[in-house]
Amino acid sequence: MSFKVAIIGRPNVGKSTLFNRLAGRKLALVDDTPGVTRDRRIHSAKLYDLNFDVIDTAGFEDAAAATLQGRMRAQTEMAIEEADLVFFLIDSKAGLLPDDRTFAEIVRRSGKPVVLVANKAEARGAQSGMLESWELGLGEPVPVSAEHGQGLPDLRDAIIAAIGEERAFGDEAEEEAVAESEVLIGEDITDPDADEAAAAYDESKPMRIAVVGRPNAGKSTLINALIGQERLLTGPEAGITRDSISVDWEWGGRKIKLFDTAGMRRKARVQEKLEKLSVADGLRAIRFAEVVIVVFDATIPFEKQDLQIADLIIREGRALVIAFNKWDMIDNPQEKLAELREMTDRLLPQVRGVQAVTISAETGRGLEKLMASVIKTHQVWNRRVSTGRLNRWLEGILTHHPPPAVAGRRLKVKYMTQAKTRPPGFVVSCSRPDAMPQSYVRYLVNNLREAFDMPGVPIRMALHASD
Ligand code: GDP
Ligand code: GDP
Q: What is this protein's function (predicted)?
């Protein structure tokens, strides 16, 4: 079974054009005169080696004026509900309009994976619209021209990045697991990014944490140990509201919402479903959280599944803290720790400097340190660096280690700005972004991480062509 993509956006951004392009239909079907009612359409689509279904929501702009917004909203929500992935389209030529933000909000709240598609990228002045679209907090825009068929390879890569290879190429087992969990769990998860507008670090707002890891790593033991240690509970019986998706709790005066993996499992009841549930469970937990604690079994660390989970957290843009659990079973802690640190840096270079804490969920050792790391990482994830400081830093970098010359011409980097937080995202304005080697971008990211003390969180960096 293939996955479904909903194409979402305000009228006129190019949804039908993209739909037709992906569905291999004739472009003649597109009509920019309002008044042509089209039903919501689903069609099989192909993009290089990816096969999927596209859902188009275009054509509702002719509804009676009074109900226009309501109808479009309902249609949009239905399409998103049905989809595994959302393409959120903007018109980079026109820039952001208030309607874009309204639709973006609906998409964000759905918690579905999303690819921000900056359409009409071939048009004059499209760069500034693209830059502006970072503000939506939907991640890095993928520039395309639906009309001219440009940018499609990047769109393909973005799909895979958003939903993972297994789903993109149709791993049936995983799809089933996800479908199953919808039935069993069926709860709403609000995306923490919805609060992105309030970018400043706010300690009074509850911090959302999830604990993930492969089966038997010690997640349940850890959650129980954390909640058992210092709890301030809301709700009835012994306080824990287990039927909701999270547990309210406090640590050192800090309000926390902890994704209740254990509660979800109890609900599954049927024992055989547990294994399957854990896959979808993990993904939901990650989407829910701001900071994800990934529990490794220190006696058998860095299994393939551990790395897949870490990778998923990074791709979802969440802050990550590693807990090496069952430390009570380690005979040579010093050597082991050095080995684990080395492996962490080597195997997870995207989050260099990630906080890794040794704990024993069973004895409760290390939990203070773990929570301190969680709070520190959360702060970094929310950090904003002023444009002034960034550019002073950039100047120094450019003097000491300028970008290489490509085909005899030196690449110029002009300036940069932080476009978003949670996680930190930067836009670098430069000549010929296409020619910029990835190694230089990595160099910038690593240096930036050090200069502004941002260890262990995913950092996004986009290149923007300056004129
Ligand atoms: P929808 O209302 O979101 O479905 O938008 P349409 O697909 O009907 O497109 C609206 C208008 O934008 C039409 O005139 C299209 O020809 C035009 N359009 C769509 N894609 C592109 C593009 O990549 N570049 C440019 N310049 N125009 C486009
Ligand atoms: P989950 O599947 O990740 O939720 O793992 P559990 O919390 O159910 O733990 C799996 C097994 O590991 C259980 O037998 C736990 O008692 C054991 N375990 C969990 N934490 C520790 C620990 O810190 N030290 C030791 N020695 N065993 C642990």
A: GTPase that plays an essential role in the late steps of ribosome biogenesis.
